[in-house]
Each structure stands twice: as structure tokens, then as C-alpha cells.
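Example A, followed by Example B.
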Amino acid sequence: MTRDKTIELEAGAGGEKSNGLISDIRKNFKIPSKWKNLEDDGASYELGKKKLVFTTDAFIVDPIFFPGGDIGKIAMCGTINDLSVMGAKPIGISLSLVIEEGFPEEDLKKIIASISKVSRETGVPIVTGDTKVTEKGKLDKIEITTSGIGLAGKIISNNGAMPGDVVISSGNLGEHAVALLAKRFNYKTKIKSDCKPLNKEIQSVAKYLTAAKDPTRGGAAEVLNEIAEKSKVKIVLEENNLSFAKETAALSGLLGIDKFSFPSEGRFLATVPQKDAKKVLATLKRFNKEAKTIGRVEKGRGVYLETSIGGLKKIDMPRGKLIPRIC
């Protein structure tokens, strides 16, 4: 007798198993040909001279309050950022709340206040939504789903990286993971979640970007492998120029978790033509002084780390159980 297959936790944590699950689900749907960019952070649809970009995401976070944010802030930032990395200006958000019976009203007020704050600061309104309450024990506290629409003149796709481009990080990576893991394990750190909206940052440099993505689940390893695979290029990161704080590297070593799989919620990675790199960096440093060039794009395939002694170490798409309930 064979056992029925079940969905494993790691299938929702980013990486190879997540991509496999999504691919299996997608096979069941026939998408009308007018919808494009179906494997990017959002789908696009031609509207005259503009392109409508549509994205959606569900958020379950543990803990729901953490240094630098909460589940409400992540939900807003995550959807705004998914639109922004595609070159779209976000114009509206749908907010859906599923709340467990017994959830403290005071905590819900704090979460709604965070959502409202991001909405006001970015100028992206909540335009529709839904709220449900489920029986005690049927949900772990609260789940938030946000969908968003935006308008773009030019779509930035993950398949646009070209040999000769440089790889730019908008700031230190993995600090969202550090903030949550430190709180879980009572590890003392000054690092707060990097969670923030990226719409203004990306809009300021969008015309120069050949590919862009925010490294959420699966971190930099997943994002860069995705860009390399879809663009059919080789990405080489430079060990001496990596954008990880010392505390991030330390926690990575302590827990035995690859820092390249640590997610961020307020950073993006992009490829930029060499001729435009200086002006892009100068602009991004106005938002975050830690923005820097971390690598280059070459002919070939895959993602590699060029070590300080000149060797190349392959960075694979994350596999196995990563970090559950980070975003």
C-alpha cells in the first residue's frame, strides 16, 4: 500500500520545492494570451500605451510583531514592492483579513495602524477588501492577503539581465530574517527588520534596470538563480563586496543557515548596464547609504561566488527546509 502524498512545510518557504509546487498548480490553468509576465512578481496586461500590473500575496508571520514592523507592514510593503520591481507605479491595494476567534482587539488595531501608515506614506490607497473570523484553533492568530494593481510604461522582467551588466543591491540583505530569528531565539542584536516600501527608490532608477526582484522567500540565492536562469546568463558575486552586515553573517553561522537564503522585505537586487551603474548607485545611496555593486553578469549559466582568493563557488537555488513563517 502506498501512502498519499502530502504537502510539506518547506514547499511554502521559498526555493526549489516552492517553485515545484507553484509550477504544478500553474499547469492546471490556461491563461489568456493577453496576460504577460506570468512568471514574474506580477502579471501584466496591455492598456493602450500603459501596462496594468497585477499581483497578490498571502502573509503568515511568526512572530506577528517584531523589531522594525509587524504583519500589517509586511503585507503592504510586500505587495507594493512586487509591483515596483516590475517598473509599475502602485495605484491600489485590496486587503483581506482572516482573524482567529479570540485575537486581541488591541493587536488588530496596531496592525491596522501599520497598514494605514504605509498607505499614507506611499500614497497607495486601500480600495477594497474582505474580513473573516474563523473558529478558535482553525488559524494561527491572523492571516493577511493583499493584492495590488499598478501602471507601468516599461515592464522590468526577470529575463532582462545581459552580459556586461553589474549586480546592485539596494542595501544590506537578510536583515528581516535576522530580526525575526533573533526574537524567536532570544538572540541579542541591534538589527531591525529591513521591511519598507520600495516604490520611490525603484521609480527613481527604473529606466536603467534590466532586471529587478526583491529577495523575500529564498533570499538572494533564489532571486539571483531565477534571474540567471530566465535571462540565460551567469551571475558572479564578489565575496569582498557582499552586502551582509557582520551580525547577519554571525547569526547565519550560529544557526547553520546559509545567509544567501535569508529573506529581506525592504531591499531589491537589480542588474544594470555598466555605463549606468554609477548614476544608479548615487541615486540609491540617497535612500540607503549601504547600496552597492555586489557582482557582475557574464556569458554562461548559474550563480557563483568569487572568493577572495579567486576561486568560484556555486550558489544553488535553495533546497530543503529553509525558514518557515518569515513572510
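Example B, a separate protein, is given below in the same form.
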Amino acid sequence: MTTFALVNKTILAHIYLFFAMFIYAMGFTIIKEVTPLHISPAGFVALRVLGATPLLWITGLFIREKVERKDIFKLALLSLCGVTINQSLFVRGMSLTSPISGAIIMITSPLLVLLLGNIILKERITWQRLTGILIGLGGAALLILSKTISNVKSDSPLGDFYVFINALSWGTFLVLAKPLMKKYNTVTNLKWVFLFSTIILVPIGFSDLIAINWSSFDNKIIFDILFVIIGVTFIAYLLNVFGLKVLSPTVVSAYIYLQPIMAAAIALYLGKDELTWEKIVSAILIFTGVILASQNKKIKVTGD
């Protein structure tokens, strides 16, 4: 592969992750509007996988890639970390805790990925990457702690705990998924991951799923549900994993710092927020952190 082609793939991977974060930033508010007022957390998670799994398998018909039997267990493990635990605890946690508390805990994910990558993949923790992660962490913390977006305080330690385990689960997924992402197509990996998760999540949320009162939903709630299924669950997962095929788990996880700044941008566009110095400084710190964390300098060793 030429250097030019490699650079193009890297740029494209960053673009994928940027749009994935934008979708997640929108989904953060939308999910709060749907659950638990209209659909229970367990029912909503079951609905998400029931909607996204057929989309992935239909897309997989155009790829026709066979998975080796020895990798089936690995994909089942990925489904447990990346969908089953991740989605279940995030939705349940956010139904119990506040947006600010949840956002603070979620940005621990890159640090967890950094440590897990070192333990599992023997990925070296350089001072430059660690500095980038900490700068981004500081920028995101400044934004959410300024309380200019929301003044709601955390009301449930259990909800905070759920979100933390969700962050740990997502970090584990990013680290464990890297080898299989190099081996198989993105859609191939995700269609099996979601299939295994459907087998677990649908029975858990079945009673809540059949209890949904669809006739009570207006067009906006229907749109919100479709956006979460197609946008947040189907498209954003694809974009995230596309990025993971080229970039390291640490870099992919660092993009989570963009979510608070994008949430602020969406609020400004809708006229529900105002621009402050904290947000400007946060934006600078977050982008600086992502840039530093994404750098992977190679040390050239010369000898006689």
C-alpha cells in the first residue's frame, strides 16, 4: 500500500469517527426523550437490536464473507462487551442519572482503553498520547462542569455506576475488536455481534417490548425511535468500526471528547444555549487532545 493511499485511509477514518460522534451527540438527547417516559430502558434496548440486526444482515448479503468457526466465540464475546452490556447499562444508567454526571463518567473511556490496550494488546503508552488524553479530558471536564448546558445534578449513584461499567465495556470492545476488524469486513463483524446480542437482549426486554403503546406516540417520538435505531445503532456503529480498522483503539476512544462540544453546538443551533468562554476554551483543549492522541511517531533507530 502506498503512503498516499495510507494517508487517505487515515483521513477517511477520522471523518467517519467525526460523523459518528455527531450522531451520538444528537442521540444523547433523543434517547433521554424516549426513555423512560415512553419506553422502558430494557424495552428500548431490545427494540434497538431488533431494528439494527436485520439492517446489518441485509447489508451483509452484498459482502458474502465467511467467518471461521474459531472466531465465533470471539464475536460472541465482542457482542457481550460492545452491545449487550454497553447498550443495556448506558440506557438504564442515563434513565437514572443526570446528563452532566453521565458525561463526566463516559469520558473515562479513553483512559480505560489506554490501560486495556497496554494490558491486552501490549500497546505502548507514550507520553504524547497520555498528554493528549489528559488534555482532552480536561477540556471535556471544563465544558460539562461549567454547568452552562444543564444545571441538573446527579440523583442516583447507581445510575453513575451503570454508566461507568458501560464505559469500561465499550473500552474493552474497542481493544478486543481490533484483531477481528483487520481480518473481516466491518459489516461481517457487526452483523454477528448484533445477532448474538439480540439472542440475549430480546428475551430480557420482551415483556417491556410488547407493552409499548404505539398508538400513543406522535410523529416526533416515532422519528426519535427510528433515528436511534438507524442512526445511533446502525450507522454510528458502522462508522466507529470503520475507523477502528485503520486507527488504534486509543485514538477511536479519544473521539468521545467531541461529544460534549457537539452537544453544545447543537444546542446553540436550536437556540437553547449561549456561547461562553468556557466552551471556546474547551473546544480548543478537546481538539488539541485528539490531535496529540492520534499522533503515532515512530522512533527511527540507526546504527553502524
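On Example B: Confidence is low (pLDDT under 50) at residues 297-304.
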